[in-house]
Every structure is written in C-alpha cells, then in structure tokens.
Amino acid sequence: MIRKNLARWLSLLGIMIFGILTVIFFFSTRRMYTGSESVYREWDNVLIKMLYLGVILAICGLLIRAQKLLTLKRVHIAAVVISVLATIICIILTNGAKSIPDADQWYVYVAAEGLFYKDYTNLQNYIYYMVYPFLLCLSELYAVIARIAGTMSYEVLRYAQAAFVGISVYFSYRIARELFRHVAAECLCLLFTLLFVPMWLYSQFLYGETFGVCMCLISIYFFLLGNRPGRGKTGREILYWSIAVIAFGITYIVRPALLVVFVAMAIIQVCLCIKNKIIFRLFPLGLMLIAGIFGQKLMSVQIGRAVGVDVDNGMPVISLLIAMGMQDNDPNNTGAGSYNGYNYNLFAETGYDQAEAQKLALQDIKRSLYRWYRNPVSMMEHNTEKILNQWTEPAYDAFTLTCKMEEPDKWVDNLYYNGLHNFVYSLLDCFQSLCYFMLTFWFLHLYKEERTAAEKPDPRDYLIGLILIGEVFFSILWEAKSRYIFPYMVIVIPCVAGSFVHFYNWLTGKSAAWMRGKQRETI
C-alpha cells in the first residue's frame, strides 16, 4: 500500500512539474549568448518550433516503423559504432576548437599538472585549493589519466573526456534496453544521445562534467541490473552491485552535486525491499554512500598531506551555497540565486574562517526566510525565476563555458557564433520541449498503469523520472546555473526514448480506433 500510494503521488507530481515546464517552454526560452552567462527571456516562434518538432517526430516515427528490420544484435553493433562515432566527433571538436581552460577549470588543470609532475608550488601558493579542497580529487583523477597516457596536456584530458562521451552514449543505450526491452526505444536513445550537442561541448570543459555523467550512467545501469526482477546468480549480482558502488563513488568524487541520483536510487531500493521483503539489499546503498562521501574525504586528505595544502579549512559549501541561492543580488544579470561571487567573497571577508562564514551564511538564510515570510509573492517570483533560468535554457551554459579558444577552425566558430549556432540552438530548444513532453507522458502512463493494470509497473520504471524530480527541488536550493542541469538531461534521454515509443503506440492505436469508427459510420 505504501509503495502504491507513493507511486501515484510521484506520478502526479511528475505530471504537474513537467507538464508546466512543457507549456512554458513551448512558448518561451531562457537564452545565454556565447561568451556571457547573462540570461535573457525570448519568446519562441511557435510555428517554426512546431515545424522542427514535426520533422523530429516524423523521423522518430519512421525509425519505429522500421523496427522489424532491426534485431537486438544489429542494434548492439550500431550502439558500439555510434559510441565510437560520438568519441570521434568530440576528438574532431577538440582539434578544431583548441580550447583554453579558464576560471575554475584552469585551477583544476594547474593542480592536475602539478600532481602529474610532482611540482606542488602552485598548489601551495594558490588559496583556491584551500577554499575548494574537494577539487583536488578531480585533479588527481585527471593526473591519473595523464599518467596512463604518459603525457599531460589539454588535448590528452579532452581526448579522455571524448571517450567518456562515447561510453555515456553506450550506457544510455544499455539503460534503454534494460528498462524498455524495445529496439525502437534503443535506436531513438542512440539517435538522441549522438545528436545531443552539449555532450560534445562539455567534452572540452575540464571540470569533470562528462567524467561524472559517464560514471553516473554506469552506476545507474548496474543498479538496474542488480535489481532485475527474478533471482539471479548471487555471484553475478555481487559483481553488478560492486560496479554500481565503485562507479557511484567516482561519480560523487568528480561531481558531488550528483548526490541527487543516489537519493533517487535509495528511494527506489527501499520500495523494492518492501515489495520483495528483502531488507539486506539496502546494504549496497550504504557502501555507495561510503564510497562517495568518505572516499572523497579520504582522497582529499591524502592529497593535501602529500602536497602541503590545508584541506580541513575549506569553504562550508552547503550553507554558503544555500544562502547564495536565496540572494536576489544579480550584478551580472545571471538571474536570481546565481551570483557565486557571494559565497567566495563572504568566506574571504571572514579571513577564511569556517565557523564565522557559516554563522554569517545562516544569518543570511534567516533574513531571506523572514523576507519571504513577510512577502510570499517575492518568494514565488524568486524561485520561479531560478527554476526557469535553469530548466528552460536548452544549451545548459555549454557554449559560454567552452568558448575561450585559440584560433578555432571556421566550422567551430560557426558552431559557437554564427548561422550554425542559431540552428543548433533552435534544435536544442525543440529537443528540450520534446524531453519535457515525453516525461509528462511517461508519468501519465505510469499513473494509468498503477490505477488500471493488473500487473503494476516495476519500481525501476520510476527511477529516471524520480531523479529529474529530485533535481528540480535541488535546483531551488542550489546555485541557479543551467550547467547543473546538463547531467540530468543526459540521464533522462533513455526515458525520453522509451516514452516516445509508448506515445507513438498510443497515438497510432487511437488513430486506428478513430478510423474504424469512421468506417462503421460510413457503412
């Protein structure tokens, strides 16, 4: 009964959230222009958008109709080929863009370089590493990649990230196969991930995004295998869970904000344990948490001791970022709750005193809550702006974060600034609309199945939707930048593909019934 009620409420919540986003996003878009993180609202040309969507839907429909020509073996071969193709595209972009890391990614690269050459001068001299000690873990992983390659350079790390993109494409396909068991869904998933341009762009961003997404997808896939219905071989299940634990540990070390994925997996696991009455299956979740949180802490302490950096006096991230997310101050026109100069400046003003910075942050949180208590409308306006700035910006800050280049090829320049850029942005705009609509339809499908079907949906079917719902609420609290939505839009692609197949079958079924009704009326 608990699982049934939770499933229904979760479905209704998903319908409401993504239904609203579908309607809003169909008519308007938040846009960032290359080179700036300023956010602008633009009204969409609905006719052009419908034309784009019509072409996308027609191509997808043709792919579904051609599924009889496809076998599981052929699709798997195609998945391997497309994954390699995605990697090649990112490598070509790396060679054509000649991107230069700046801001935070520059510090990450400098630390990785120091760890690779065992020259810790910069790590000891820059206060940045004391403020953000957890980033030393990412730098160490980059240094490991460089040691494997035998050399350190921007290109080497980006080639590795190109490989992570290819692996992400492959595991997205595997997730679609595991959840939907439908070759059309698998093919659509491959098509969507291959053409998802922000994946290409983030392969140039040396801040762990593609690394984290790749490990996260692997963790999700093996979590699904570990919870496959029916009792499997114990040894195989142990292997699945071991990979899931290790992959999530790396995910958290690389991108801690992806903890939302763990929370969603924990909720699904609890539902499965209640359903199957097997409590010991909660044990791997504890291992995941240990691998992530304690693994990161242990790794940063060891690196700090080796290089002579104080890692115990870092910024109290949670309190400062929540306080920053409540600020209306917007000096850069990046939107409410997005001015990340707040947290660093506050920490610096206290002389990098953790206790004092946390005290001041909590005072700011209390002031914001009191302000909203006195004026609830301002609270709604603030949080609505935060959600829309993050969830209706279809490029996820990818162009701006990777636009610093040294003599890029002409086609790369067009991708970032000119006619090709506008076309790609419009396509991403339509694709995101499609994602939200298909998520809405998927939750409608799950709600209907819970109410009417004799065999209820597998709790695993809710996982990806639950991850997205969790991130919506997390994005209200956190720094309001669309770049933090990027990993979740990669994660959702298998669900979008599967939902499209259900939508197509529903639509063709309704059309056939309508035609039969018309024929009977004629007779």
From TrEMBL:
Task: Give the keywords, sorted.
Answer: Membrane, Transmembrane, Transmembrane helix
Does the keyword Transmembrane helix belong to this entry? yes
**Ranges that cross the membrane:** 7-27, 47-64, 76-97, 126-144, 179-198, 205-226, 238-266, 278-295, 423-447, 459-478, 484-507
Note whether Membrane occurs among the keywords: yes
What is the official name of this protein in its record?
Answer: Uncharacterized protein
Question: Which organism is this entry from?
Answer: Acetatifactor muris
Lineage, uppermost ranks: Bacteria, Bacillati, Bacillota, Clostridia, Lachnospirales
